């Protein structure tokens, strides 16, 4: 009883904290959004680790893929919905997708877990991902790669990036956005 | 790239979350219905007695049947497009139009003279009706799958089936402007079969075209 109770409390805390961070982030608060993704990655890592114990090498790839999916699909989160249900559905979808790609036999035993589990544990030790996102980034067309490199690697703002690359500010935003979508698609394709 | 780098990259994405879901579905509905209407006019033609038909209860029954099914299908499709949102009560809204129609058809068949029953079910156009609905549903079918791709369905076959059902209901709504049949047993068999065609196609295509 004691253990169950403490797990539920922990879960409720995570749900509340992460949801606040996400909503602030969706409202334009970049540090809050960064904090959300950071905390979420730890939960995702623990979630995938327990389900991929036979394939430890795939865990970090899947964490990154799920993070990209959460980011690219963030417009599908409805504020009146439990965050755990949304995150769990995405994490499980990506997990099943991977298992199906790896081995059709494994896919027959889809994980039947409850959605609270995705926030039940957290693991902050990031292992090295197998797939090289840098290579995927390098393969993007210039109008997507340049703004991503400027904003990410050099920490420039949208306006500075626009000035540096000679692109318009809206082209910078569109380039980063499409580039991230393209990376997500390439990760999926390379499974 | 390390996961922390990826997180910084994602957090730096300056584009606000796109929330054009409603807009995209509105465009899809507009083009889907317009496409179905054009296809119906070109391949089948409006029924010549349309003005007269608007005075008949069964003409409106067909529209209400298809319209309520389309509305339930639209809600179900949108729900399935949002990760972690359950269908819940929408299942009932999806089943109710069909069940009510079947009840009505059964009542009509039971009270009809035995010699008439076969005509009530087969009418004049039974051999083309379902196929025609499937054909006219093609534009909304493509439009709804396109709209659903802006969302993130996690149950692809089910989401595809719901989009197909929505397309089938829209196609039926348009086809009813051509179809001269008005016996409930006919509608209960051939219209439902016609809607089942895009529904099945959506279930089969969903896992291929809706992946993300």
Structure overview:
The complex is a heterodimer of chains A (191) and B (212). Chain A is built from 9 helices and no strands. The termini of chain A are far apart. Chain A is globular and about 55 Å long. Chain A is an all-alpha fold and 191 residues long. Chain B has helices spanning 3-12, 21-43, 50-53, 57-80, 90-111, 114-122, 126-136, 138-148, 156-175, 184-209. At the A-B interface, α2, α3, α4, α6 and α7 of A face α1 of B.
- What is the first-to-last residue Cα distance of chain A? 42 Å
Helical percentage of chain A: 55-70%
The H-and-E topology of chain A, N to C, reads as HHHHHHHHH
Which value, in Å, is the CA radius of gyration of chain B?
A: 20 Å
Averaged pLDDT of chain B:
93
What is the helix tally of chain B? 10
Beta-strand content estimate of chain B: under 5%
Q: Estimate percent helicity of chain B.
A: over 70%
Q: Please give the domain count of chain A.
A: 2
The SSE string of chain B, one letter per element, is HHHHHHHHHH
Beta strand % of chain A: under 5%
Total helical elements of chain A: 9
List keywords for this structure.
heterodimer; A: Arc Repressor Mutant, subunit A; 2 domains; 9 helices; B: 212 residues; elongated
């Amino acid at each position: 009883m004691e253990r169950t109770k403490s797990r539920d409390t922990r879960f409720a805390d995570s749900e509340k904290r992460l949801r606040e961070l996400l909503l602030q982030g969706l409202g334009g608060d970049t540090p809050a959004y960064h904090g959300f993704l950071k905390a979420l990655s730890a939960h995702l890592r623990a979630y995938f680790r327990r389900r991929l114990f036979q394939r430890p090498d795939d865990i970090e790839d899947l964490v990154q893929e799920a993070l990209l999916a959460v980011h690219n699909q963030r417009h599908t989160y409805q504020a009146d919905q439990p965050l755990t249900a949304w995150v769990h559905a995405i994490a499980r979808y990506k997990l099943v997708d991977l298992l199906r790609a790896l081995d059709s036999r494994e896919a027959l035993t889809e994980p039947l877990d409850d959605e609270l589990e995705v926030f039940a544990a957290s693991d902050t030790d990031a292992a090295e991902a197998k797939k090289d996102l840098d290579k995927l980034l390098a393969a993007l067309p210039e109008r997507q790669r340049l703004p991503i490199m400027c904003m990410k690697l050099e920490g420039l703002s949208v306006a500075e990036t626009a000035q540096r690359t000679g692109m318009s500010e809206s082209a910078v935003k569109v380039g980063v956005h499409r580039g991230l979508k393209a990376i997500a698609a390439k990760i999926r394709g390379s499974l | 790239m390390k996961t922390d780098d990826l997180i910084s990259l994602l957090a730096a994405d300056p584009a606000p979350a796109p929330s054009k879901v409603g807009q995209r579905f509105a465009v899809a509905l507009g083009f889907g219905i317009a496409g179905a209407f054009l296809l119906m006019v070109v391949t089948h033609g409006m029924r010549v007695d349309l003005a007269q038909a608007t005075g008949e209860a069964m003409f409106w029954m067909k529209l209400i049947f298809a319209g309520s099914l389309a509305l339930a299908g639209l809600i179900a499709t949108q729900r399935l497009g949002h990760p972690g949102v359950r269908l819940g009560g929408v299942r009932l809204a999806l089943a109710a139009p069909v069940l009510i129609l079947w009840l009505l058809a059964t009542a009509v068949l039971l009270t009809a003279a035995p010699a008439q029953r076969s005509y009530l079910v087969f009418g004049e156009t039974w051999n083309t009706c379902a196929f025609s609905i499937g054909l006219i549903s093609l534009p909304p079918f493509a439009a709804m799958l396109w709209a659903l791709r802006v969302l993130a369905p996690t149950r692809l076959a089910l989401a595809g089936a719901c989009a197909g059902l929505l397309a089938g209901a829209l196609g039926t709504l348009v086809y009813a402007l051509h179809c001269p049949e008005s016996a409930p047993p006919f509608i209960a068999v051939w219209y439902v079969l016609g809607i089942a065609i895009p529904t099945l196609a959506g279930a089969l295509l969903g896992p291929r075209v809706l992946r993300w």
